[in-house]
Specification:
about 290 residues, alpha/beta, 10 helices, about 20% strand
Length: about 290
Amino acid sequence: MLENDIRLSVKAALDEDLGHQDAHHRSQADITAQLIPSDKHAQAKLITREEGVFCGKAWAEQVFNQLGGEVALLWHVDDGDLLIPNQVLCELSGPARTILTGERTAMNFIQTLSGVATITKTYVDKLAGTHAQLLDTRKTLPGLRTAQKYAVTCGGGVNHRIGLYDAFLIKENHVMACGTIKSAVTSARNLHQDKAVEVEVENIDELSQALDAQADIIMLDNFDINMMLEAVELNNQYKDADNTKGYQGAKLEVSGDVTLDTIANFAKTGVDYISVGALTKHVRALDLSLRLQS
């Protein structure tokens, strides 16, 4: 899926800059690059102006592949590498026109995905000393779902659902439509026995219902610290019980009001997961620069 998405997202990005591409050629072109002689070759260096976590190598390579494959890229970093200011990420050589035509598209992908990887690592570092894992959400930029979720893994985070098809997430409106938490969970089990079933709850009573329904994961929506501690204790009772049905409680996920200031204390309550929409929703691009060599 990721490989196909890279190809499609790069094509869409190049079409934004160069116009529609049919089976034979692009209907428009980089008119500024046409000022440069077609036979002029050049070298360039891509650098980062700030520290962070690198991500986006395959997207940059795909940009220049789709532009003809005449530009050679010599990488000095891999996805997931830590970066320092003014570090050379990549050296490029080939037709000057092609380098300049593809530079912005390639940099857009790298700066965006590196930004996601960088903020993810910042959150992950706050979880040191706990067993909690950082999860992303579906609050991604349209068209970049798999790219951003890949970037999250480069920063040390863990992917939640990729889409609506790979796991159940039963929320308030689903419960209302189904009648009860138990009926919703039962229907999910009957529909897809191989899919994880997660239930979002807003209070301890709903948590008890989700545990009684034997949900795999329970999302604690906007719980405060005391409620989280109570939730962990209640869930542990299922783990310690001699349950003839084999249910040993659920994985607990915290969601809501998670910031760099609150996440450490949330993790110390003993929950299993903490999900943060800001990883992919509030994206701040890494500051990059491409310098053509004389």
